[in-house]
Design a protein that fits this description.
The complex is a heterodimer of chains A (355) and B (303).
Chain A: E1 4-12, E2 18-27, E3 32-36, H1 43-51, E4 58-63, E5 66-67, E6 78-81, H2 93-104, H3 108-121, H4 137-150, E7 155-159, H5 167-184, E8 188-192, H6 195-201, E9 204-209, E10 212-217, H7 219-224, H8 229-234, E11 241-248, E12 251-254, E13 259-260, E14 272-276, E15 281-284, E16 292-301, E17 306-311, E18 318-322, E19 333-338, E20 344-347
Parallel strand pairs in A: 3-8, 3-9, 6-7, 7-8
Antiparallel strand pairs in A: 1-2, 1-4, 4-5, 9-10, 11-12, 11-14, 12-13, 14-20, 15-19, 16-17, 16-19, 17-18
Helix pairs in contact in A: 2-3, 2-4, 3-4
Chain B: H1 2-10, H2 20-55, H3 59-62, H4 77-83, H5 92-124, H6 130-139, H7 149-159, H8 165-190, H9 194-201, H10 206-235, H11 238-243, H12 252-259, H13 267-287, H14 289-296
Classes of the chains: A alpha+beta (355), B mainly alpha (303).
Chain lengths: 355, 303
């Protein structure tokens, strides 16, 4: 296993599209590193550049101590798992697993031993003599994972491997991948557009947007302190409420009367936006202590929680996450209260976190 | 045929509880349908039937008035005349057939060999102005080929390709390549690029990955595309007429047309030659009929 260093990566396609503007990543040895972003943000291109399937226009990629810019995919000693599994349709599971090893020219005994080991690890025993067509989506993806394992590569690259599975299977596979990664101590780069996947899997998450890295951090860091307005609006379901605020007598005042505790070190004379998580707000009975008058616009019953959309007299309605026991009807007069700590505050012009 | 359709309709499900008027309407409609289809079938198939009959009639029956539909003596002499000249040796028409095989075969192979890799490249890679290039390639098929016959004729005469099989092969290839690229691109798009990516990670080069993984999956598409190209080259008449003059070069379509005329026309020979000419295409089309439908309906269903 080895770490991966990506420095000043830039990728421009011949047709002029810039897929990756500028990406720096430092992925540690044995780390499960997730690249998260909307489609077209450059995450897959970055991954393919690491794999060697795309040649970057500029920038360096190092795997371990090796500069791999000019190495072919096979010479980089990495394995990749694809969204469409990419199992060879004419080969049985056993041969699909053995394929990369035979391509390397390993002796037969070694090939068999490694195939058995990977099959045991991914519990593929009964599937070894089937062809991909006879396997379900989940089984195909387990075979694809096993095929990545047999190589004993220096790093695993995963390109949205769970996207084509149904929801239940996806949760199972997520656990399986996490477990596997921990057991092998493998360096793994995992690309996804699903934030739940990213939060639950990643040791660290890189959020990409328009070919740039917006933020790199642990799932908690990314959730608590999104580094930019983009991240604030991207992470969380529903995402942060972005409320325009002004500083007056040492506090943050929003239109409509909501008052927030300011973090220290706020710049003066800038237009500011506070990012408030839906669970940092509370819908109360009207007139409750510390609340401002508000009105419920709509209610989303999710079973384990309720999302209230609340009009508090500000420019935009806010979303509030409440336990299912607290019930208000739509259009009810209520109170709105901030219960969280200091919010993240962003500069409107730079769109970046200022405090 | 008509009877069986009628029966299928009348013995179909829900025979009794439908309102009578509607049932009558349904039967009335199917009668009209069958009548129209029968007329259409007769109109379309009668020339073919007449060609088949003429090819096995003796000459005096061919010219008989009133025309003989059923009671004529069957002979295979005309078919023999197509291939065997009087006093042994090959007939000019049989040479023409051989030319057709060479020209159509070579141009199909050439168009496929050029078109398949091009389609693969257009499908897989980000090419500069890809859409414009593809449109340009397609646009060469917009005009009727006959428009360029005269300029091609003049150019060919200058460079020695006039009355030359190579000339025909090249012009047919030029007409087939755009078609091959477009049709094959559809088939390549259907094969996930991940196969090649995975093969490259397993140690193959881009071309090896294409050759070993994508190409085998493309074989049905290639077969269908090649048959389309083959049918075009085999049937082509206008260029073959203008760009050839000697029997050693001329392909079958203009040669068969050339049998008509002069002082007398040996209709039996014309008909027999036409049947022989039509057979290979029919056989090929039958062999790949599934793929022909796949080719025609390609793109109708999105993944």
């Amino acid at each position: 296993m080895a770490g991966i260093e990506v420095t000043a990566l830039h990728k421009r396609y011949p047709d002029g599209t810039v897929a990756v503007e500028h990406v720096d990543l430092s992925i540690g040895h044995g780390e499960l590193f997730v690249m998260l972003g909307p489609s077209g943000c450059g995450k897959t291109t970055t991954l393919r550049a690491i794999a060697g399937l795309e040649r970057q226009t500029a920038g360096d990629i190092r795997i371990g101590d090796t500069l791999v810019n000019d190495l072919r995919p096979a010479e980089r000693d990495i394995a990749m798992v694809f969204q469409f599994y990419a199992l060879y349709p004419h080969l049985r599971t056993r041969d699909n697993l053995a394929f990369p090893l035979r391509a390397e020219g390993l002796p037969k005994q070694e090939v068999n031993a490694r195939v058995e080991e990977a099959a045991r690890l991914m519990r593929l025993g009964p599937l070894l003599n089937r062809r991909p067509r006879q396997l379900s989506g989940g089984e195909q993806q387990r075979v694809a994972l096993a095929r990545a394992l047999v190589r004993r590569p220096r790093a695993f690259l995963m390109d949205e491997p769970l996207t084509n599975l149904d929801a239940e299977l996806r949760a199972d596979m997520r656990t399986e991948i996490k477990h596997l990664q921990g057991e092998l101590g493998a360096t793994m780069v995992y690309v996804t557009h699903d934030q739940v996947e990213a939060m639950s899997l990643g040791h660290r998450i890189a959020i990409l947007n328009k070919g740039r890295v917006e933020q790199i951090g642990t799932p908690l860091e990314v959730y608590d302190r999104p580094a930019s307005l983009f991240c604030a609006a991207f992470i969380g379901s529903p995402p942060m409420n972005l409320i325009e605020v002004e500083i007056a007598d040492g506090r943050l005042h929003a239109q409509g009367g909501l008052v927030l505790t300011p973090p220290s070190g706020l710049p003066r004379d800038r237009r500011l936006v506070a990012g408030v998580r839906p669970e940092a707000l509370e819908v109360t009975a009207p007139g409750a202590e510390g609340s401002i008058p508000a009105r419920v616009v709509s209610v989303e019953w999710l079973g384990d929680e309720i999302i209230y959309v609340v009009d508090h007299g500000g420019q935009r309605d806010v979303r509030v996450r409440m336990p299912p026991t607290v019930r208000f009807a739509a259009d009810a007069k209520v109170g709105l209260r901030h219960t969280g700590g200091t919010p993240a505050v962003y500069d409107v012009s730079t769109e970046e976190l200022v405090a | 045929m008509a009877v069986s359709v009628d029966e299928a309709v009348s013995t179909g499900p829900a025979p009794d509880h439908g309102p009578p008027a509607r049932r009558l309407g349904g039967r009335g409609r199917s009668v009209v349908e069958i009548a129209l289809l029968t007329v259409l079938a007769v109109v379309m198939l009668f020339p073919v039937l007449w060609m088949l009959e003429t090819s096995i009639k003796e000459n005096r029956d061919v010219y008989a008035i009133p025309a003989k539909f059923f009671d004529f003596a069957v002979t295979l002499q005309h078919y023999k005349d197509v291939f065997v000249a009087q006093g042994d040796g090959r007939t000019p028409v049989s040479v023409n057939f051989l030319n057709s095989v060479v020209v159509a075969g070579a141009s199909t192979v050439l168009a496929t060999v050029l078109g398949v890799p091009a389609a693969w490249a257009y499908s897989r890679f980000a090419v500069k102005a890809k859409k414009d290039q593809l449109f340009f390639i397609l646009s060469t098929r917009f005009m009727p080929p006959v428009v360029v016959v005269i300029p091609i004729f003049l150019m060919y005469r200058q460079i020695g390709l006039y009355d030359n099989k190579l000339g025909l092969i090249l012009i047919y290839t030029a007409f087939n390549v755009p078609f091959t690229i477009w049709m094959m691109k559809g088939f390549v798009d259907e094969v996930p690029a991940e196969y090649e990516d995975a093969a490259m990670l397993d140690g193959y080069t881009r071309l090896q990955a294409f050759w070993r993984y994508t190409l085998p999956l493309l074989v049905p598409g290639i077969a269908a595309t090649a048959v389309f190209a083959l049918i075009f080259s085999w049937n082509e008449f206008v260029f073959a007429t203008f760009l050839t003059s000697s029997d050693s070069v001329r392909t079958a379509p203009p040669a068969i047309a050339g049998l008509i005329g002069g002082t007398t026309t040996d209709w039996g020979l014309v008909a027999a030659a036409s049947v022989v000419f039509a057979l290979p295409v029919l056989v090929f089309a039958y062999l790949v009929r599934k793929h022909l439908i796949a080719g025609v309906t390609l793109g109708a269903v999105r993944r």
